[in-house]
Specification:
Blueprint lengths: L4 H4 L5 E11 L8 E4 L7 E12 H4 L6 E7 L2 E2 L4 E3 L4 E6 L5 E2 L6 E7 L5 E13 L1
Antiparallel strand pairs: 1-10, 2-9, 3-7, 3-8, 3-10, 4-5, 4-6, 4-9
Length: 132
Amino acid sequence: MVETLSDIGSKEVKHKAVTNVLFITNGADTGLVELVPQVTVKRIVVIGFKFTGLSTTEIAGGEQTAQVEFFSGSTVLTGKWQGTFDWIMDAGYNPDGHFQTEKNEALNYKITNTHSTPITCGLEVILSYIEK
């Protein structure tokens, strides 16, 4: 039988909230931005998270402009999600984890400007995680 996180017993749940708004030229991205620093000999397991995109063009009635993806170090963990100002991605709680990093790797994210002009955009993230 495969052992799942919910079978392991109690773990200390940690929380992180980050708001990051940057000016990004059209077609460019932020590069990797550290969300949770690496934990020596452990994985970062995201058990709950929600995020929303932030964009000055959307506030003014413009189109969806930013995408976000999450990484274990520099390895992609998720696909690209549209980060829109008027939509909140709430994945809820999953005791077995939505996604996790490799051991000794930070949890990072990258925001990409998919708009045809330079914009100010960003991301607001709230997550819960355990170290395994």
